[in-house]
Amino acid sequence: MRYNEKELRALSQQPAELAAELGMRGPKKGSVAKRRLVKLVVNFLFYFRTDEAEPLGALLLERCRVAQEEPGGFSISFVEDPERKYHFECCSQEQCEQWTEALRRASYEYMRRSLIFYRNEIQKMTGKDPLEQFGISEETRFQLSSSPREGQSAGVSSQLDELD
User: Fold this and answer.
1) Residues 93 and 66 in one domain
2) Three-state secondary structure of 82-121
3) Per-residue confidence band for 57, with pLDDT thresholds at 50, 70 and 90
4) Residues 25 and 90 placed together within one structural domain of the fold
5) pLDDT at 66 (0 to 100)
6) Is the pLDDT of residue 161 over 70?
7) Would you place residue 89 in the very low, low, confident or very high pLDDT band (cuts 50, 70, 90)?
8) From CA 48, how far away is CA 33, in angstroms rounded?
9) Is the domain of 24 the same as that of 48?
10) What is the mean pLDDT of the chain?
11) Most exposed of 27, 43, 51, 115 (fewest Cβ within 10 Å)?
């Protein structure tokens, strides 16, 4: 996936689906948890120093695994590099569950599967493909019902800067 730093910084300033100050540890061995403002915007997880407007970095939430760790904590790792984990510490177990659920729903692949599911349900109920009314071509509809092409939702993690 390609994006430029200017677009990424602009996206980081958009309203967040979820935002909070969390403890965050990067994937480096021996790193310690630091308080970071963490914002979920579409399928990017941005993290900031608590007193700055510019993000320190961003994680693209594609082909990733979100797992609850110790009580009140969760981690994010990526299929391509499962040993590279980002750890987050929440204020409560409730907050942790809220974050893990939101992060699992944030990926393109989750949204794609949901679209296919609801499209099929509507088609069963009405006998019509709901996408026809929007003039979506046969080719596009075929892509929605088949598996994604290689690289279409490749998971990457991107840092604007490395965690301090």
Assistant:
1) yes
2) EEEEEEEECCCHHHHHHHHHHHHHCCHHHHHHHHHHHHHH
3) very high
4) yes
5) 94
6) no
7) very high
8) 13
9) yes
10) 82
11) 51
Residues 23 and 42 in one domain: yes
Count structural domains, the chain: 2
The overall longest dimension of the chain from CA atoms, in Å, is 58
Is 164 a member of any domain? no
Residue-wise DSSP of the chain: ----HHHHHHHHTSPPSEEEEEEEE-SSTT---EEEEEEEETTEEEEEETT-SSEEEEEE-SSEEEEE-STTEEEEEETTEEEEEEEEE-SSHHHHHHHHHHHHHSSHHHHHHHHHHHHHHHHHHHSS-TTGGGT--HHHHHHHHSPPPTTTT---EE-SS---
Range of the domain at 120: 110-145
pLDDT at 2 over 60: yes
CATH number for the domain harbouring residue 15:
2.30.29.30
The verdict on residue 163 lying in a domain is no
**Overall average pLDDT of the 35-54 stretch:** 94
Q: What's the whole-number mean pLDDT along residues 123-127?
A: 91
Within this chain, do residues 49 and 22 fall inside the same structural domain, yes or no?
Answer: yes
